[in-house]
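Structure first, sequence second, as always.
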């Protein structure tokens, strides 16, 4: 993976000062840290591969234009600025209780830690 000069400089700074931030870790903490770092690396690698793929197939749009005024003027329908949804109506109509976001995050986190 090729890095920009700025990224290389930031990485070098991080590596140079890494010892300052190190603390003694138990095997469990080290395992968790390794898992998190592997996930971050995997996500970065997937992102790079995805960008290469869309660039290869000429799907990357590089022509960016500034939009003056409201975005709603360009769109066919007006978009809400508040994307929160009241789930009570849904739960009542379909007689189905939706999980809370906090519970979902904790449930998924168990797969990684």
């Amino acid at each position: 993976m090729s890095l920009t000069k700025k990224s290389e400089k930031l990485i070098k700074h991080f590596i140079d000062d890494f010892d300052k931030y190190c603390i003694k870790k138990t095997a469990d903490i080290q395992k968790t840290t390794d898992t998190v770092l592997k996930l971050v690396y995997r996500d970065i690698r997937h992102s790079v591969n995805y960008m290469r793929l869309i660039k290869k197939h000429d799907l990357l749009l590089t022509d960016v234009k500034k939009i003056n005024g409201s975005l709603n003027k360009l769109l066919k329908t007006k978009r809400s600025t508040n994307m929160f949804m009241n789930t009570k109506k849904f739960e009542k109509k379909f007689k189905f209780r939706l999980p809370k976001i906090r519970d979902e995050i904790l449930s998924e986190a168990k797969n990684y830690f």
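Margin note: The mean pLDDT is 80.
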